[in-house]
Amino acid sequence: MFHHTRTVIVTIAILILTASQAVALGRVARRFNVIDFYGGTSSPVGKYESLADFVDFYIDDRPTDVDGDVLYDPTFHLGFNYGQLRNDRMLVTVGFRWTQIEAINLLGLNTVGRQGLAILLDPKKPSINQYDFDFNFNYMFLSIAQRSFAPYVGVGFRAGITSVTAKGFESESRLNTALAGNFGAELKLWEHAKKRAFLTIASVNSYDLFSTGDRPKYFNLGAALKYYFRP
Asked: Which of 66, 75, 69, 130 is nearest to 102 (CA)?
């Protein structure tokens, strides 16, 4: 637990310092501020030795891995960001993301501890949620400020909490982090006559590459409405 907490604190500190540097650079470069709201689907990927780092899995008293698409159902996520577009190509944002984690009841899988077994056998299933602070850096191959269409790639860092709640049991939470690869494209829908603001719709996609503990990883497909404006 201490290791996870230290990892999250260090990650958040790095994100804050990076965001501060981005703002400082933006003061002397061509820039737009941006606000976006997004949502989409999340398909589980990877292998896991536990349910969201809470309940370990064993078969014949030996630790075992479970495929993500067996342990978790596809689900959805929602979020929002605020940031800056610098030099028409580099987009830096910070924001918040919520993911509803849908676990499957594993009736044929033994677990350690009566509490864990009871949670998995509960016919109503546990309520599992992921709450994240997001930092994203994306590079646009074309200038969305000058053109109507721009594809992008980037990287996302997430630091957050996985929370599990089950009827008859105390709620539990775990601190964790994740690294994701971002990709997508933006399409301009509207632009101010003096080019001081514009509105886009964007595909917002990512693949979770690494995570601490057994935090669930997803292949995320989504869409966002983004408003750019000069400060």
From this structure: 75
The model's pTM: 0.83
Closest by CA position to 202, among listed 39, 31, 74, 22:
39
Give the model confidence (pLDDT) of 213-231 as tens digits: 999 999 999 999 999 999 8
* Distance from C-alpha of 209 to C-alpha of 190, rounded to nearest angstrom: 34
Distance CA 227, CA 231 (A): 12
Q: Which tokens go with 145?
A: 């400020």
Assess contact for 125 and 114: CB atoms under 8 A.
no
Phi, then psi, of 92 in degrees rounded to 5? -115, 125
Angstrom distance (rounded) from CA 122 to CA 117: 9
Q: Name the token pair of 216.
A: 């669930």
Q: Report which DSSP code applies to 59.
A: E
